[in-house]
Design goal:
Length: about 450
Amino acid sequence: MGMCLKLLGLVSVGSAIGIGVLWHCFTSVPDLPDIPLGYWGPGAPKKDDTAVKPFTINISEADVKDFEARLDNTRNLVEPLEGIGFQYGFNSVYLKKVLAFWKNNYKWSERQTFLNKYPQFKTQIAGLNIHFIHVKPDAKSKGKKVVPVILLHGWPGSVREFYESIPMLTGQKAMPDVALELVIPSLPGYGWSDAARRPGMGPAQIGNIFTELMKRLGHDKFFIQGGDWGSVIGSSMALLHPQNVIGYHSNMCFCDGKIAMLHSIVGSMFPSLIVDEHMVDEFPGQFSNIIQESGYFHIQATKPDTVGVGLTDSPAGLAAYIIEKFSTWTNKKWRDLPDGGLENWDKTGLLDNIMIYWFSNSITTSMRLYSEGFSSKYRAYKLDDIPVTVPSGCARFDNEVAFSPTVSLRHKFTDLVQIKDYKGGHFAAFEVPKTLTDDLVDFIKTVLSRKPKKE
Ligand SMILES: *[C@@H]1O[C@H](CO)[C@@H](O)[C@H](O)[C@H]1NC(C)=O
């Protein structure tokens, strides 16, 4: 009996230590890594030309003709299986409609003028020419406090996602004394920003470039808004450059650290312990949906250049690959519809985004971000396990591919100023610009109205 008690005592002490070690594993916060700006251009490092030069999209006639010929020469597409919507991927019956619209109703010359409607610039940072839209407050805003905001897109998006949001932000009325100044860059390797020429350009490195961009434009302190990769890049800026970030706002607040993983595991078995009430029923099912929707992710994180060959060569292939995401990422139920629900989208806007990828020939370089952001070297930075301490705001959309429970977000974002739930999908800026911009303006207003912290 005495022996048993002693043993029990030993086991208890042992498991207490075990639990302690496990707890420490989960809660220990890694040191912030030092990630230099570096040089990503061709050849040996050169000094940047820091001039900010106006930029206009102007695709040569030869490139337009080449595009039209390839679109015209699309081969006979394979018929979908009988009775099938988008469950096997893009339905070719509907794709033919998109291609016919592209050929007959989409006029590139007009769309180029549209895409040039906001002032655009390029400037060289870390050896790369970075493209961005820059909308400054107009003359009517004289005397108002100018607050800079950088808006960050993701994959397979572009600066086009923000075109509807821009006037809503510059024309906001909720803060009468404030004028928002918008900077909207193309990610390196996307659209008209140069791509890195050597391996290693992950979200934190891109964040370094964008922080430098904001400083070059005279903004030492600014707000960030981002979705998709823009959200990951933005949170790395908030982590690595907190002195420059007034607030971080995202429509895909994301936490992938150890604690969030633990929350996910527990939440998938006992959702009511972890997950917000309105998502308790849906949460466990989201993991099979994530697997169903993330095949592209594994390919792009491993062999982006291979899949890039076909997409670079075929307008139909590029459109199917990208626009498919606007179906199920906007609403997973649309997978069962013959048109993938895509008739709910403005086709012209979707094709603008495709044209940016096509004419800049950037699909391959855009996909490499998955390889860089999930390399073992990058994951060793453990950025996901380091809390973001700047004021943060999360707009959660009910059709986002993955739902982040509030407990996980509060762990990652220690100063979570606001968290609100809305109807909408992954491409919130593009799909529901009013909802997103109202939430962003609300967030900025709240953060600006806080009393400055005593030092
Ligand atoms: C595009 O370039 C051509 C040839 O240099 C020029 O004539 C035309 O005005 C340019 N268009 C725009 C929109 O800049």
